[in-house]
Amino acid sequence: MAVKKERRDFLGLALGGFTTLGGIAVLGAAKRTWDPLPSVKSAGFTTIDVSGAQPNVLNVEKWRGKPIFILKKTADMKKDDRDIIVGKDRFLICIGLCTHLGCIPSYYPKQLKFICACHGGQFDTAGRVLKSPPPIPLYIPPFKVEGTKVVLGEAGETFKKMEAAGLTV
Amino acid sequence: MKELKILLIVIFFALLTYWGVEPFAHSKMHKHVEDNKFSYVDLPPLTKKGDATRGKALVMGAGACVGCHSIKAAGIPAPMDPNTAAASYGVNPPDLSNVGALMDERFLAELIKNPTKALILEHKFDGKTRVFPMPSFMGAGGDKEQEVADMVAYLKKISNKEVSPKEAYVTSCGRCHANRYGKYEQIGFVPKTKSNIKTNQDIDLLKFKEKVADYQGNLAEYMGKLPPDLSIMIRARSEDFMKTFIEDPQSQLKGTAMPRVGLTNEGYEKVMKYLEETGDPSKPARDALGIKVIGFFVIFTILALLWKKSVWRDLH
Amino acid sequence: MAHFTKATSIHDWLNQRLAVDKVEKVLATEYWIPKNINFLWAMGMILAVTFGLLLISGIFLLMYYKPDTKLAFDSVNYTIMSQVGYGWLWRHVHAVAASVVFLIIYIHMFTAIYYGSYKKGREMIWISGMLLFVTFSAEAFSGYMLPWGQMSYWAGMVITNIFSMGSLNLNGLVEWIRGGYVPGDAYLTRFFMLHVVLLPLVIMALIVFHFAALRIPHVNNQDGEEIDFEEESAKYLAGSTRQSKVIRFQFDFLSKDILVLGFFFIFFFYLVFYHFEFAMDPVNFDPANGLKTPTHIYPEWYFLWSYEILRPFPKNPGLIAFGFAQVIFFLLPFLDRSPNAVPAGRRGIFKVWFWLLLINMVALTILGKLPPVGIYTTYGTIAAYFFIGLWIALPIVTKLEKPIGGK
């Protein structure tokens, strides 16, 4: 009797365990269904031509649904490690979302600073924090410079170096 | 054994119903057409051996092909853009780079000599009230059969590279049939464009769409209606229909304005491959996963059988 | 007020509050099922599981489907079928399950008819089951609209036209149902609502009702034997499991159900991966076109028999015959005048009636798909009259039936 019960319980468990494996596979398929679509992912690259940019005039572009700040620097603006060189010019290229809670800061060309209306955070023209609450500088997205064009979404050599040096965060 | 008898009865009635509503009903609904394996036996075979060099001179010169057709493989651009061509002829004449590889030589030869016969469009273009835009080749002064053979030889020579399924589609179907899942319109592939960030309008795309609409207007006028988009045609029609219809459109749809395409069996398979890519791209994944899932349930059933037996040991 | 003591375990804590032990007994371990059954008794479980498959696959389809006449077709055939990871799998499972569920429903129904499981206190099981059948039909029809292909559009056109009620010409009612002069955007969106919210809720409620209707009269058995469930279950609990005529739902009955389920899954997934055309009509892969009716128009196979009853008659009688076919099955427990609740095989002429009904419905189904031309129209008319005749004959046939035994 005991042997029979053991065998029965063992087989019940084996069936249950095997069914669970199938359930896990279904969850894997379900996870894939939730993934971003290939069309969303392939749209994750944006090429921007910066040759027409005016110095100290903020350009806003869109990349992966987020605003991208592009600021061509004048010669007398202070140099920074976060500057991105395109052609002969220095640029600030960063995601235009405050690193505090994600509002879009406004640029004040005369004061040479970004001010976030939500909680008063301030950034300089290199995207570095001048006034908290934002804890870290404005993010620099993966980019690759191609002549006068910048491809966002693709990590080029310069970006990788900057990332390694901790400058992009 | 009683259960087995019941099961057989259930299976019998289920299969009978299935047979009645699927194979039997469909055999009554659809006309059966025998295919000719793309052999074009109604057209005469080529009697002369062609010479590509002489053929080239004819295609470029006395044959007057390049007056309307582009041959990108030979560096000959289209004399007019698709929209202008459609406004003049109703449809954009095809580029001739790949026709030698995709289409049967009997068909090509007949097409040069007598286009409406090769295309089986004599019911639409009687030559009096309606004239087919492509004129018949009347000969360049020499032996006409030889000249046609030379031109066919040239067309074959320039298309000696491997034609991709996509190119096969564009050459064979693409001037009349869009394929929106393949991002293709009758005038070409949809270009990658960008919206203006301030207005959120994509003016380049709108311009492209305008051209497509213009082209389709002329095409629909020429064909009598707009030829359907072929994105998932592979699932909307049976394989048998596709094959016999492409081989001879009149055999399935009497009076249709669709011309015979003249594809070889190989060319047909390339076109079908492209249609599968756009219309049923999950087929390889489906076939591969099916075996695994069925295997899973075979093991599941074996375990369930053992478990059931152990549970019922005390009950019988 | 109930008395609560300090719990000795999580189980005890729950037990004091939710009576989990009692619930388990009532619903599972001491829910008694007759032992004398065959695999046809597993159809209910298969239906429940298939409904589960429809629900799960439907949830994933719902995340990418767009109920808009301009977007619906491509959201199904492009986005779901080729862009979404495993989107094609959910769609194939959904489409095949929607078709197979009716196969199982019909097997379930004919099992009940054969074994007389609609009689002697089981009338409400039958009626709740028929309500489920009708709701499933509405669910299937509304779902069929969603891909917005040629068959969706024209089925929508034809079926909603039935509500004009023939010569009554209730065109206002038809327009009201459609939310337009023809099936359009409002129509698609409201049928989407019916398909994903209202009807599934009704189905779930009816499933509970159907199960509840089963509790008092209990499950029938292969010989129509009346079982004293109290006596037999006491025997089982006393250890005489072999002698007892009943078994526990969990795991005695369940183990058999799951075995049948295993075979069903092999068959089902074979269809999903390699033989799905019967459930995904090729014509519906042409986008809806209000200016062109497909050459052949027919409903999905499970509606064919009632469609065929509509077809051979002129408009008004056709609609009456169609209406007759829709309600007549509900009346089965009352049209069967015989006191015998035993398998049809032992009921004399009713046995003949049963097989004739089955054959007649298969014939109607097949004829419903064939083009209505020539000899098929004649056969169709005969089969439709025969169907009506069978139901008129039922009370007479059963009245003449001799009572069996002293039970």
Please explain how this structure is put together.
The complex is a heterotrimer of chains A (169), B (316) and C (407). Chain A is an alpha+beta fold. Chain A has three helices and eleven strands; from the N terminus they run ααβββββββββββα. Chain A has two domains: 2-35; 46-164, Rieske [2Fe-2S] iron-sulphur domain (Rieske Iron-sulfur Protein, 3-layer Sandwich), CATH 2.102.10.10. Chain A has helices at residues 2-34, 38-42, 157-164, and strands at residues 46-49, 58-63, 66-72, 84-86, 89-95, 106-108, 113-115, 122-123, 129-131, 143-146, 149-152. The mean pLDDT of chain A is 85. With 316 residues, chain B is mainly α. Chain B has a domain at 52-194 and 214-281. Chain B has 14 helices and two strands, in the order H-H-H-H-H-H-H-H-E-E-H-H-H-H-H-H. In chain B, strands 1-2 form a two-stranded antiparallel sheet. In chain B, strand 1 (184-185) and strand 2 form a beta hairpin. In chain B, helix 2 (52-60) crosses helix 7 (144-158), helix 3 runs parallel beside helix 9 (203-223) and helix 8 (165-172) crosses helix 13 (265-279). The model of chain B has no long low-confidence stretch (mean pLDDT 92). Chain C has two domains: 31-297, Cytochrome Bc1 Complex, Chain C (Up-down Bundle), CATH 1.20.810; 305-407, no CATH class. Chain C is built from 16 helices and two strands. Chain C has helices at 10-18, 20-29, 43-62, 72-83, 87-115, 123-145, 150-161, 171-178, 185-215, 229-237, 249-274, 304-310, 315-328, 332-335, 349-369, 375-399, and strands spanning 32-34, 246-248. Chain C has a two-stranded antiparallel sheet with strand order 1-2. The longest helix of chain C is centred in the middle third of the chain and has 31 residues, at 185-215. The A-B interface holds A 4, 7-8, 11-12, 14-15, 18-19, 22, 25, 46, 60-62 and B 194, 197, 296, 299-300, 303-304, 306-307, 310-311, 313-314.
